[in-house]
Protein backbone atom coordinates (compact mmCIF):
# COMPACT_ATOMS: atom_id res chain seq x y z
CA UNK A 1 0.00 0.00 0.00
CA UNK A 2 1.27 3.48 -0.81
CA UNK A 3 2.22 5.53 2.23
CA UNK A 4 0.39 8.79 2.93
CA UNK A 5 2.43 11.95 2.44
CA UNK A 6 1.79 15.66 2.86
CA UNK A 7 2.92 18.33 0.41
CA UNK A 8 6.55 19.42 0.70
CA UNK A 9 9.93 19.09 -0.94
CA UNK A 10 10.71 19.07 -4.66
CA UNK A 11 8.03 17.44 -6.80
CA UNK A 12 9.65 15.72 -9.77
CA UNK A 13 6.68 15.63 -12.13
CA UNK A 14 2.97 16.31 -12.66
CA UNK A 15 1.96 12.91 -11.28
CA UNK A 16 4.56 12.51 -8.51
CA UNK A 17 4.33 12.78 -4.75
CA UNK A 18 5.89 15.52 -2.64
CA UNK A 19 8.69 13.70 -0.80
CA UNK A 20 8.97 15.63 2.46
CA UNK A 21 6.43 14.78 5.10
CA UNK A 22 5.81 17.69 7.44
CA UNK A 23 2.64 16.35 9.00
CA UNK A 24 1.92 13.05 10.69
CA UNK A 25 -0.84 10.77 9.47
CA UNK A 26 -1.70 8.41 12.36
CA UNK A 27 -1.21 4.78 11.54
CA UNK A 28 1.10 5.32 8.58
CA UNK A 29 4.56 5.29 10.17
CA UNK A 30 6.41 2.53 11.98
CA UNK A 31 8.79 3.73 14.66
CA UNK A 32 12.42 2.70 14.64
CA UNK A 33 13.43 0.47 17.56
CA UNK A 34 15.25 3.34 19.31
CA UNK A 35 12.62 6.02 18.57
CA UNK A 36 9.84 7.57 20.66
CA UNK A 37 6.81 9.43 19.35
CA UNK A 38 4.90 11.77 21.68
CA UNK A 39 1.47 13.12 20.75
CA UNK A 40 -0.16 16.00 22.61
CA UNK A 41 -3.77 14.85 23.02
CA UNK A 42 -4.62 17.64 25.45
CA UNK A 43 -2.77 20.86 26.21
CA UNK A 44 -5.34 23.20 27.73
CA UNK A 45 -7.20 24.20 30.86
CA UNK A 46 -9.90 22.54 32.99
CA UNK A 47 -12.66 24.18 30.90
CA UNK A 48 -11.69 22.23 27.78
CA UNK A 49 -13.09 23.54 24.52
CA UNK A 50 -13.83 22.01 21.14
CA UNK A 51 -10.39 22.87 19.79
CA UNK A 52 -8.37 22.12 22.93
CA UNK A 53 -8.72 19.32 25.45
CA UNK A 54 -7.27 19.14 28.94
CA UNK A 55 -3.88 17.61 29.72
CA UNK A 56 -2.89 14.36 27.99
CA UNK A 57 0.22 13.06 26.24
CA UNK A 58 0.52 9.68 24.51
CA UNK A 59 4.04 8.20 24.39
CA UNK A 60 4.65 5.55 21.72
CA UNK A 61 7.89 3.57 21.86
CA UNK A 62 9.83 1.74 19.18
CA UNK A 63 9.23 -1.58 20.96
CA UNK A 64 5.47 -1.18 20.40
CA UNK A 65 4.59 -0.08 23.94
CA UNK A 66 2.23 2.87 24.43
CA UNK A 67 1.85 4.80 27.68
CA UNK A 68 -0.65 7.57 28.40
CA UNK A 69 0.48 10.35 30.71
CA UNK A 70 -2.56 12.09 32.16
CA UNK A 71 -5.96 11.84 30.51
CA UNK A 72 -7.78 15.09 31.16
CA UNK A 73 -11.33 15.99 30.21
CA UNK A 74 -11.94 15.98 26.45
CA UNK A 75 -8.67 14.27 25.57
CA UNK A 76 -10.14 10.90 24.58
CA UNK A 77 -11.44 12.41 21.34
CA UNK A 78 -7.87 13.15 20.31
CA UNK A 79 -6.62 9.75 21.45
CA UNK A 80 -9.31 8.11 19.31
CA UNK A 81 -8.18 10.16 16.34
CA UNK A 82 -4.80 8.37 16.50
CA UNK A 83 -6.66 5.17 15.51
CA UNK A 84 -4.69 2.96 17.86
CA UNK A 85 -6.45 -0.32 18.71
CA UNK A 86 -7.90 -0.22 22.21
CA UNK A 87 -5.95 -3.28 23.30
CA UNK A 88 -2.74 -1.22 23.10
CA UNK A 89 -4.09 1.66 25.20
CA UNK A 90 -4.19 0.04 28.60
CA UNK A 91 -1.54 1.86 30.68
CA UNK A 92 -2.20 5.28 32.21
CA UNK A 93 0.15 7.32 34.41
CA UNK A 94 -1.54 10.07 36.42
CA UNK A 95 0.42 13.03 37.70
CA UNK A 96 -2.38 14.06 40.09
CA UNK A 97 -6.12 13.93 40.51
CA UNK A 98 -7.44 17.25 39.23
CA UNK A 99 -10.18 16.60 36.67
CA UNK A 100 -8.23 18.24 33.86
CA UNK A 101 -5.64 15.49 34.31
CA UNK A 102 -7.76 12.36 34.74
CA UNK A 103 -11.47 12.99 34.00
CA UNK A 104 -11.42 11.18 30.65
CA UNK A 105 -10.33 7.94 32.27
CA UNK A 106 -14.04 7.15 32.13
CA UNK A 107 -14.05 7.56 28.34
CA UNK A 108 -10.97 5.35 27.91
CA UNK A 109 -12.40 2.76 30.29
CA UNK A 110 -15.85 2.46 28.71
CA UNK A 111 -14.94 3.37 25.14
CA UNK A 112 -12.07 0.90 24.98
CA UNK A 113 -14.32 -1.78 26.45
CA UNK A 114 -16.96 -1.33 23.74
CA UNK A 115 -14.36 -1.10 20.97
CA UNK A 116 -12.62 -4.37 21.72
CA UNK A 117 -10.12 -4.04 24.57
CA UNK A 118 -9.80 -7.61 25.93
CA UNK A 119 -8.04 -6.82 29.23
CA UNK A 120 -8.39 -4.47 32.22
CA UNK A 121 -6.81 -1.05 32.37
CA UNK A 122 -3.76 -0.38 34.52
CA UNK A 123 -3.35 2.96 36.29
CA UNK A 124 -0.22 4.25 37.99
CA UNK A 125 -0.56 7.22 40.30
CA UNK A 126 0.63 8.82 43.54
CA UNK A 127 -0.58 8.26 47.06
CA UNK A 128 -1.97 11.14 49.07
CA UNK A 129 -1.10 12.55 52.46
CA UNK A 130 -4.17 10.63 53.66
CA UNK A 131 -5.44 7.41 52.01
CA UNK A 132 -8.60 9.10 50.73
CA UNK A 133 -6.44 11.60 48.79
CA UNK A 134 -4.60 8.94 46.80
CA UNK A 135 -4.99 7.23 43.44
CA UNK A 136 -6.16 3.87 44.86
CA UNK A 137 -9.03 5.57 46.69
CA UNK A 138 -9.96 7.54 43.58
CA UNK A 139 -10.11 4.45 41.36
CA UNK A 140 -12.01 2.41 43.95
CA UNK A 141 -14.70 5.06 44.13
CA UNK A 142 -14.59 5.66 40.37
CA UNK A 143 -15.67 2.03 39.93
CA UNK A 144 -18.36 2.46 42.58
CA UNK A 145 -19.71 5.55 40.84
CA UNK A 146 -19.78 3.73 37.48
CA UNK A 147 -21.17 0.49 38.89
CA UNK A 148 -24.32 0.59 36.72
CA UNK A 149 -22.13 1.06 33.67
CA UNK A 150 -19.89 -1.81 34.77
CA UNK A 151 -22.67 -4.30 35.58
CA UNK A 152 -24.56 -3.75 32.32
CA UNK A 153 -21.49 -3.95 30.08
CA UNK A 154 -20.09 -6.91 32.01
CA UNK A 155 -23.31 -8.83 31.36
CA UNK A 156 -23.87 -7.81 27.74
CA UNK A 157 -20.25 -7.78 26.51
CA UNK A 158 -17.69 -9.43 28.81
CA UNK A 159 -16.48 -8.46 32.31
CA UNK A 160 -12.67 -8.55 32.08
CA UNK A 161 -12.14 -5.20 30.30
CA UNK A 162 -14.09 -3.42 33.04
CA UNK A 163 -11.42 -3.98 35.65
CA UNK A 164 -8.78 -1.45 36.65
CA UNK A 165 -5.55 -2.53 38.29
CA UNK A 166 -4.07 0.27 40.41
CA UNK A 167 -0.36 0.74 41.05
CA UNK A 168 -0.14 3.41 43.75
CA UNK A 169 3.27 4.66 44.84
CA UNK A 170 4.56 7.08 47.45
CA UNK A 171 4.32 10.64 46.15
CA UNK A 172 7.23 11.65 48.42
CA UNK A 173 9.71 9.19 46.91
CA UNK A 174 12.49 10.89 45.00
CA UNK A 175 13.45 9.44 41.60
CA UNK A 176 11.78 6.18 42.58
CA UNK A 177 11.05 3.35 40.14
CA UNK A 178 7.34 2.97 39.42
CA UNK A 179 7.49 1.00 36.14
CA UNK A 180 10.16 -1.14 34.48
CA UNK A 181 9.14 -3.29 31.54
CA UNK A 182 10.60 -4.24 28.15
CA UNK A 183 13.30 -1.59 28.23
CA UNK A 184 11.08 1.26 29.44
CA UNK A 185 11.74 2.67 32.91
CA UNK A 186 9.48 5.26 34.57
CA UNK A 187 10.45 7.01 37.79
CA UNK A 188 8.61 9.62 39.84
CA UNK A 189 9.66 12.75 41.66
CA UNK A 190 7.51 14.96 43.91
CA UNK A 191 5.83 18.02 42.40
CA UNK A 192 4.41 21.11 44.07
CA UNK A 193 0.83 21.95 43.12
CA UNK A 194 -2.06 22.96 45.44
CA UNK A 195 -1.50 20.14 47.94
CA UNK A 196 0.45 16.97 48.71
CA UNK A 197 0.28 14.24 46.07
CA UNK A 198 1.25 15.52 42.58
CA UNK A 199 4.30 14.03 40.87
CA UNK A 200 6.35 14.40 37.72
CA UNK A 201 7.67 11.46 35.71
CA UNK A 202 11.12 10.63 34.30
CA UNK A 203 10.95 8.16 31.40
CA UNK A 204 13.98 6.37 29.98
CA UNK A 205 14.09 4.23 26.85
CA UNK A 206 16.83 3.27 24.36
CA UNK A 207 19.27 5.76 25.83
CA UNK A 208 16.71 8.59 25.71
CA UNK A 209 15.56 10.54 28.75
CA UNK A 210 12.11 12.12 28.61
CA UNK A 211 10.25 14.05 31.30
CA UNK A 212 6.55 14.69 31.87
CA UNK A 213 6.00 17.37 34.49
CA UNK A 214 2.24 17.21 35.03
CA UNK A 215 1.30 20.31 37.03
CA UNK A 216 4.00 21.86 39.18
CA UNK A 217 5.44 25.14 40.29
CA UNK A 218 9.25 25.47 40.27
CA UNK A 219 10.81 22.87 42.56
CA UNK A 220 14.21 21.45 43.44
CA UNK A 221 13.39 17.87 42.42
CA UNK A 222 12.60 18.81 38.83
CA UNK A 223 15.74 20.92 38.48
CA UNK A 224 17.88 18.06 39.78
CA UNK A 225 16.36 15.05 38.04
CA UNK A 226 15.24 16.52 34.70
CA UNK A 227 18.73 17.84 33.97
CA UNK A 228 20.16 17.02 30.51
CA UNK A 229 16.99 15.28 29.32
CA UNK A 230 16.36 14.81 25.61
CA UNK A 231 12.73 15.95 25.81
CA UNK A 232 10.96 17.79 28.62
CA UNK A 233 7.25 18.64 28.96
CA UNK A 234 6.49 21.22 31.64
CA UNK A 235 3.51 23.46 32.24
CA UNK A 236 3.78 27.19 31.51
CA UNK A 237 1.12 29.76 32.35
CA UNK A 238 0.76 33.31 31.02
CA UNK A 239 0.95 36.15 33.52
CA UNK A 240 -1.71 37.52 35.88
CA UNK A 241 -2.98 40.13 33.42
CA UNK A 242 -4.17 37.40 31.04
CA UNK A 243 -5.96 35.47 33.76
CA UNK A 244 -7.69 38.58 35.02
CA UNK A 245 -8.64 40.20 31.71
CA UNK A 246 -9.09 37.22 29.38
CA UNK A 247 -9.93 34.37 31.74
CA UNK A 248 -12.19 36.24 34.13
CA UNK A 249 -10.37 35.61 37.40
CA UNK A 250 -10.25 38.12 40.24
CA UNK A 251 -6.92 39.88 40.65
CA UNK A 252 -6.02 38.08 43.88
CA UNK A 253 -6.48 34.67 42.21
CA UNK A 254 -4.88 35.62 38.88
CA UNK A 255 -1.47 36.37 40.33
CA UNK A 256 -1.53 33.24 42.49
CA UNK A 257 -2.80 30.90 39.75
CA UNK A 258 -0.06 31.87 37.33
CA UNK A 259 2.78 32.05 39.75
CA UNK A 260 2.18 30.31 43.10
CA UNK A 261 0.76 26.89 42.26
CA UNK A 262 1.58 26.91 38.54
CA UNK A 263 4.67 27.99 36.58
CA UNK A 264 4.79 31.28 34.66
CA UNK A 265 6.64 31.85 31.39
CA UNK A 266 9.72 33.47 32.94
CA UNK A 267 9.88 30.76 35.62
CA UNK A 268 9.54 28.02 32.96
CA UNK A 269 12.39 29.60 31.05
CA UNK A 270 14.57 29.76 34.15
CA UNK A 271 13.99 26.05 34.81
CA UNK A 272 14.86 25.11 31.21
CA UNK A 273 17.99 27.27 31.25
CA UNK A 274 19.09 25.38 34.34
CA UNK A 275 18.36 21.83 33.15
CA UNK A 276 19.33 22.40 29.47
CA UNK A 277 17.12 19.87 27.66
CA UNK A 278 17.64 19.03 24.02
CA UNK A 279 14.04 20.13 23.48
CA UNK A 280 11.55 21.83 25.83
CA UNK A 281 7.76 21.74 25.53
CA UNK A 282 5.51 24.24 27.28
CA UNK A 283 1.85 23.29 27.72
CA UNK A 284 -1.25 24.06 29.81
CA UNK A 285 -2.16 27.37 28.26
CA UNK A 286 -4.56 28.84 25.72
CA UNK A 287 -3.52 29.72 22.19
CA UNK A 288 -4.60 33.34 22.56
CA UNK A 289 -1.96 33.64 25.30
CA UNK A 290 0.90 32.12 23.28
CA UNK A 291 2.51 35.38 22.24
CA UNK A 292 2.62 36.69 25.80
CA UNK A 293 3.82 33.32 27.05
CA UNK A 294 6.55 33.12 24.42
CA UNK A 295 7.87 36.57 25.34
CA UNK A 296 7.94 35.55 29.00
CA UNK A 297 9.79 32.31 28.29
CA UNK A 298 12.31 33.99 25.98
CA UNK A 299 13.16 36.50 28.69
CA UNK A 300 14.96 33.68 30.53
CA UNK A 301 15.52 30.86 28.00
CA UNK A 302 16.84 30.78 24.42
CA UNK A 303 16.96 27.04 23.78
CA UNK A 304 14.87 24.67 21.60
CA UNK A 305 11.17 25.15 22.41
CA UNK A 306 7.66 24.16 21.45
CA UNK A 307 4.49 25.71 22.82
CA UNK A 308 2.17 22.74 22.55
CA UNK A 309 -1.22 22.67 20.90
CA UNK A 310 -3.49 19.66 20.60
CA UNK A 311 -2.31 17.05 18.09
CA UNK A 312 1.25 18.35 17.96
CA UNK A 313 3.65 15.41 17.45
CA UNK A 314 7.31 14.95 18.25
CA UNK A 315 9.54 12.11 17.07
CA UNK A 316 12.55 11.78 19.35
CA UNK A 317 15.77 9.96 18.52
CA UNK A 318 19.41 10.43 19.44
CA UNK A 319 19.80 12.32 16.16
CA UNK A 320 17.24 14.98 17.03
CA UNK A 321 13.64 15.95 17.70
CA UNK A 322 11.21 16.39 14.82
CA UNK A 323 8.03 18.42 15.43
CA UNK A 324 4.94 18.10 13.25
CA UNK A 325 1.16 18.28 13.46
CA UNK A 326 -1.05 15.22 13.18
CA UNK A 327 -3.68 15.22 10.45
CA UNK A 328 -6.51 13.02 11.64
CA UNK A 329 -10.26 12.58 11.13
CA UNK A 330 -12.78 14.22 13.44
CA UNK A 331 -14.92 11.09 13.24
CA UNK A 332 -12.37 8.31 13.58
CA UNK A 333 -13.84 4.87 14.17
CA UNK A 334 -12.33 2.24 16.42
CA UNK A 335 -9.56 0.22 14.81
CA UNK A 336 -9.62 -3.48 15.73
CA UNK A 337 -6.52 -5.16 17.09
CA UNK A 338 -5.47 -8.80 16.69
CA UNK A 339 -6.96 -10.01 20.00
CA UNK A 340 -10.69 -10.65 20.38
CA UNK A 341 -12.64 -10.25 23.58
CA UNK A 342 -14.05 -13.39 25.19
CA UNK A 343 -17.83 -13.91 24.87
CA UNK A 344 -20.26 -12.93 27.63
CA UNK A 345 -19.75 -14.80 30.88
CA UNK A 346 -22.35 -17.54 31.33
CA UNK A 347 -24.27 -17.55 34.59
CA UNK A 348 -23.67 -13.87 35.35
CA UNK A 349 -26.58 -12.12 37.05
CA UNK A 350 -28.77 -10.26 34.58
CA UNK A 351 -29.12 -6.57 35.54
CA UNK A 352 -32.42 -6.28 33.62
CA UNK A 353 -35.62 -7.20 35.47
CA UNK A 354 -38.59 -9.16 34.11
CA UNK A 355 -40.62 -5.96 34.39
CA UNK A 356 -38.43 -4.20 31.82
CA UNK A 357 -38.10 -7.28 29.59
CA UNK A 358 -41.90 -7.55 29.41
CA UNK A 359 -41.90 -4.20 27.63
CA UNK A 360 -40.07 -5.53 24.56
CA UNK A 361 -42.17 -5.11 21.41
CA UNK A 362 -42.00 -8.29 19.34
CA UNK A 363 -42.82 -6.96 15.83
CA UNK A 364 -39.86 -4.60 15.99
CA UNK A 365 -37.48 -7.35 17.05
CA UNK A 366 -38.81 -9.91 14.54
CA UNK A 367 -38.40 -7.40 11.70
CA UNK A 368 -34.64 -7.96 11.91
CA UNK A 369 -34.66 -11.77 11.94
CA UNK A 370 -33.60 -12.20 8.32
CA UNK A 371 -30.55 -10.01 8.85
CA UNK A 372 -29.68 -11.76 12.12
CA UNK A 373 -30.12 -15.26 10.66
CA UNK A 374 -27.64 -14.44 7.93
CA UNK A 375 -25.13 -13.16 10.49
CA UNK A 376 -25.65 -16.25 12.67
CA UNK A 377 -24.96 -18.64 9.81
CA UNK A 378 -21.92 -16.70 8.63
CA UNK A 379 -20.21 -16.75 12.02
CA UNK A 380 -21.61 -20.04 13.39
CA UNK A 381 -23.44 -18.45 16.30
CA UNK A 382 -26.27 -20.95 16.62
CA UNK A 383 -25.33 -21.84 20.20
CA UNK A 384 -25.29 -18.13 21.05
CA UNK A 385 -28.67 -17.23 19.56
CA UNK A 386 -30.36 -15.01 22.13
CA UNK A 387 -33.79 -14.92 20.44
CA UNK A 388 -35.46 -18.32 21.10
CA UNK A 389 -35.83 -17.56 24.82
CA UNK A 390 -37.90 -14.48 24.03
CA UNK A 391 -41.72 -14.89 24.15
CA UNK A 392 -42.15 -12.74 21.05
CA UNK A 393 -39.71 -14.67 18.85
CA UNK A 394 -41.13 -15.96 15.56
CA UNK A 395 -39.08 -17.86 12.98
Describe the protein in words:
It is a single chain. The protein is of the alpha/beta class. The chain folds into two domains: 25-326, Ribonuclease Z/Hydroxyacylglutathione hydrolase-like (Metallo-beta-lactamase, Chain A), CATH 3.60.15.10; 354-384, no CATH class. Helix content is 26%, strand content 22%. The chain has helices spanning 75-81, 99-102, 105-114, 135-145, 147-156, 220-225, 240-245, 251-257, 265-275, 290-298, 354-357, 362-366, 369-379; strands at residues 23-24, 36-42, 56-61, 66-71, 91-93, 121-126, 164-169, 176-181, 184-190, 199-205, 208-212, 231-235, 280-283, 305-307, 312-317, 320-326. The strands form two sheets. The protein has a nine-stranded mixed beta sheet with strand order 1-16-15-2-3-4-5-6-7. Strands 8-9-10-11-12-13-14 form a seven-stranded mixed beta sheet. The longest helix is centred in the middle third of the chain and has 11 residues, at 135-145. It starts with 22 loop residues before the first strand and ends in a 16-residue tail after the last helix.
Amino acid sequence: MREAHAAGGVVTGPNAIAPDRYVYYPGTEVLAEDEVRVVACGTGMPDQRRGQASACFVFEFGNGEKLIFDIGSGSMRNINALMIPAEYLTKVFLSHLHTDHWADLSALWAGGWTSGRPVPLEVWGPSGREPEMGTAYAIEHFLEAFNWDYQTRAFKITPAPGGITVHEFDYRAENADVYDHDGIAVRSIPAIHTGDGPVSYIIEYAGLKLVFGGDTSPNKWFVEHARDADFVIHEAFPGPRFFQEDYGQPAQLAWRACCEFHTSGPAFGKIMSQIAPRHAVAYHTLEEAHQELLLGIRSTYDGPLSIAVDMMVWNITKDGVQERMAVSPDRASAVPGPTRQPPPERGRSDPMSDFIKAGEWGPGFNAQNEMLDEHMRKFDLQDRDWRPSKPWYKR
